[in-house]
Amino acid sequence: MEPGIASPIIVEKELIAEFHFPREEVLLNTEEIKVRSLAMQRAIRLGNNQKRKVKIIFEDDQAIKKVETTIWAVTEKNILLKRGVAVPINRIHQVSAY
Q1: CB–CB of 78/86 below 8 Å?
Q2: Residue 98 pLDDT > 90
Q3: Predicted local confidence at residue 51, as pLDDT
């Protein structure tokens, strides 16, 4: 179980395109948002330079979920995974390397 997060449901990245994401931010304060931003920047470097996967804990309209994958790019509003799959940044609880 991830620290501070209820047991997320493990999903395959290919299924993410089918999920519905509300517009609301999942993090509670600006410090958490800043930590998430730094973690995403580190994750994209690991993915592009070393082809390393990261754990992404995110929340759609159903539950908190976890995927282990490579982040290919970060835009203003989304992280991009393989095959054009996108996860809205405001729905991400945590990004961590392993």
Answers
A1: yes
A2: no
A3: 72
3-class state of residue 37 by DSSP:
helix
**What's the chain's Rg over C-alpha atoms?**
12
Query: Would residue 90 count as lying in a domain?
Result: yes
**Structural domain for 41, as ranges:** 9-97
Q: What residues are paired with 56 via a beta bridge?
A: 67, 95
The predicted-structure confidence for 8-39, as pLDDT tens digits, reads as follows: 999 999 999 999 999 999 999 999 999 999 99
23 domain-assigned: yes
Q: What is the CATH number of the domain that holds 20?
A: 2.30.30.100
Strand order from edge to edge, sheet including 54-59:
9-10, 64-69, 54-59, 92-97
Query: What pLDDT does 4 receive?
Result: 57
Quick one: CA dihedral 85, 44, 55, 59, positive or negative?
negative
Q: What is the total count of domains within the chain?
A: 1
